[in-house]
Amino acid sequence: MPRHALDPTEQAEICAEIGGVLGGGLPDGWARATLRWAELAVGGSSASLAVVAEDGSSLTAAGIPRGITELCRKLRLGMYTESGGTWFTLTYTLTPERYSVHFEFDDEPDAPSFTPENYAKDLAYFPRAEENVPEWLRKKVDGLPNVYGAVHPEFGGPDDTLGPSLEEFAAVLSGAGWETGPSDRFRGELALSTDWASLGTLSRPDLIRFSGQVEPERWEELHTLLTGFGWNVGMSCYEPRGGDLVREFPTPREIGH
Hints:
Helix content is 26%, strand content 31%.
C-alpha cells in the first residue's frame, strides 16, 4: 500500500470509520468493545477483540470484522513521520456513545509471532531517528546475525556422507583458539566466539548450519579459516539490522551426489 500522510482530519475520519465497521459486527447487548491491533510491514498482523455487556459480563463476538485490517493499516502508514516512525499497536475502545483510540509508538507489541527479522524489516520500511528507536527494538535488530553459513556434506558413495560432526566442528575451532560451549538458545547446539566473531549453530545430522555476528572486514577470514580445514563451506553476509545481502562465499565444491 503506498504511503499517504494523513492530516488530523483524515485520521479522525478513518478512526470514525473503524468504529462504524466494528460496531456493525458486535453481538446484541454489547456495551463496550476493545480492539487491539498490531502489525509490522513484514510478518502479518495480530488482533484481539474483547466485548462486554452492561453488567460487565463477556460477550462472544464473531471475530474481527472484515475491513478493520485495511483501515488500521491505512492509519499506520499515514501516521508515519521520518523522525518518530509510526505506531506498533492501536487500542480502540468503542461504546454506543463514543470511541477513544490510543496509539503505542514505543512499547513492544504483544505479538509472539513477530520475529526479530520482522522487526528489522519494519524498521527499514518505517525508519526512525536513532534516539527514537526503543531499547527493546534496538536489542532485537542489533542482535540479528550478519552472517549465515553452513558446512555442507559431501558424498563419497551411496552410503558415504563426508563432513564433520558437530563435535568435530567444535574441537577443531577450539584448537584454533575459539571459545566453544553449549548454546543458550538450542539444546545440543554450539556457541562459538573469538575476539571478532560470535556464532551459534542450528544443525542437523548431515549439515552444520551457523549464524552470528562477524566483523565485516573479517568475513573473508572466517570463510578462509573454515574451508582451510577441508570443509565444504558456504556463507552469505548481510548489512546490519537484517539489511540487504552484500557478500556471498559459495561452497568450493558442488553439493550432492
